[in-house]
Amino acid sequence: MLRITDTRTGHLVEIPAAPRRLLRSCVHLPALGAGTDDGTGIGPLHLRVPLIGDVLARTAELNGLQVITVLTTPELTPDRARALDRVMAVLGIHPPTVIGPHRPEAALGGPADVHVTAGDTDPGDLADGARVEVGRVDTTVPEQDTAAPGDSTAPADDTPAPADAAAPADDTPDPLAVRLLLLGRPYGTPVTVTGAALAGAGRTLRDWRRSVADWAQQPSRPVPADLLGQSHAALAEDLDVAAVLALLAEVAGRSDVPAGAKFETFAHLDRVLGLDLARDVGHQRPTGP
Fold this sequence. Notes:
alpha/beta, single chain, 15% strand, 289 residues
């Protein structure tokens, strides 16, 4: 059972209502702003809203549901449409069906079960389905840390940096560090962008990918039942992705969990996180003489 808070009532509701096994999700992109440095009008909030829709769909699929996701957008120029496609691709957002400013019922095949919107915008009359409001994204990134959305936009939060925070960062920004930062706080909570937090997320990704590649060399073990239950319960109860990230950080340091089980746990939960945690498997440097 997948439950999410309907922000109009403040109550958890089951989506879709049992016994139906098809989730119809409508993601509403806020109006794009003009005058941004890259000229696209696409800002951090425009990344966070479809990202939450993506995580919702991934979680539903993990729970055995079929999912239809549509994205309503303002009228977009061809350049802005291409920029939006590009930034969603680099952030690992599974491409939804884009229907422009039109109502979603026809594309969904019926009324939406859930609407994902920006908290400070009015997407119009949403009489059907639960409403999920995504918190704003504030930016305090130095100019040298910013880039076009399709290259390396840098939303961040106050997620603590790992212990090796003083280590030099890789020269190549990882766009999935943006995804990690935006997933590190509850979806309705505002997030503040900082260059330091983005760098810390990049280091966390590198550490986790290196560990996953090392664990993959050991005999496979099943995901421990307690970890599987905790993670699935957190995701099914209002998309508590932050709790899943904290669980992974704990698992990485546990000596009582075999390496093969750690690998399977990270790989399994990455189906929802979308952080490409197994990217370095098979590419690690030799450890022997």
